[in-house]
Amino acid sequence: MSSGPVLRAMGLRKVYGDFVAVDRVDLEIGRGEIVGLLGPNGAGKTTTISMMVGLVPPTSGDLVVEGRSVRRDPVWVRSRVGLVPDSPGFYDGMTAWENLWITARLNGVRDESRIQDAISRVGLSGWEDVAVGKFSKGMKQRLGIADALLKSPSVLLLDEPTAGLDPGGSDEVLRLIRSLADGEGMAVLMSSHLLHQVEWVCDRVAVMDRGRVIAQGTLDQLVGRRYYVEMELDGDVNAAARALLPVGKVKVEDRRIVVEAGEDVRRKAVDTVLRAGAVPVEVRMRRAGLAEVYRNLLEAGS
Ligand SMILES: Nc1ncnc2c1ncn2[C@@H]1O[C@H](COP(=O)(O)OP(=O)(O)OP(=O)(O)O)[C@@H](O)[C@H]1O
């Protein structure tokens, strides 16, 4: 295997008629790395994933997996990329094993022990002979991952893997994804609208808007140094808010003031509020999270 990134998208572009669905996406995923793909509805996430797995041909650009280009070795590249769609389609009347047997056949996997192996890797041992119709949504999602693992891919692409799952089911799926990256060195890309889950499980994040990747990096790189001081006040809240304007970006919510700044301004904010004649009854500070970064990025782009 080459020592560079496992997957590298270079200028991937998809145009439908005169509509640009995906516009020159550059993205790299390393061994054992999980990248979260975020963006509002219609941003181009599914189209990007579909191009990476060979379901949609790119209008231009290239995809390189383990050093080999999809333009030169399309069949080989496709064999190295596993896809887990948002709702994996299984035959409900057939067992988990039978469903995976069909996928194995379609992918030319003749060694049937790989079916059992995939089932146990996703924690479904003991369920192989149960009809998939009896599975919970979370179990079906894990079986979807087993299905993608059958061809022993080096890249796993998941389209909203926890959509519609309850917190317990989401947790199991996310832990499984993390263990595939940590334990087996799989390169993972997962699209999601659930920012707290992405924050929890992903090493890096790429944010798409209107077909383009508008930001990517680790959470620390994206968040940078942004701090929020939240104060609950007694007294003249509006006078305090006016006095705080030189300290940072100020937001007033009823009796609560939030000051956003590039450093910890707790002391300065409290002094300023007291001088303005108000009394802070509660003061809290937190660093910005993915939710704020995401909102700011999309607001800046609109
Ligand atoms: N086959 C197609 N023909 C024309 N337009 C398409 C086609 N497939 C997707 N699009 C358009 O491309 C844009 C990107 O769609 P895509 O499904 O990739 O977005 P998404 O980020 O996955 O959205 P969501 O979060 O809703 O799943 C949308 O405006 C969609 O309508």
UniProtKB/TrEMBL annotation:
Cited Gene3D superfamilies: P-loop containing nucleotide triphosphate hydrolases
Keywords attached to this entry: ATP-binding, Nucleotide-binding, Transport
SUPFAM superfamilies assigned to the protein according to its UniProt record, in alphabetical order: P-loop containing nucleoside triphosphate hydrolases
GO terms of molecular function: ATP binding; ATP hydrolysis activity
Domain ABC transporter: 7-235
Membership in a protein family: Belongs to the ABC transporter superfamily.
Name assigned to this protein: ABC transporter, ATP-binding protein
Species this chain originates from: Conexivisphaera calida
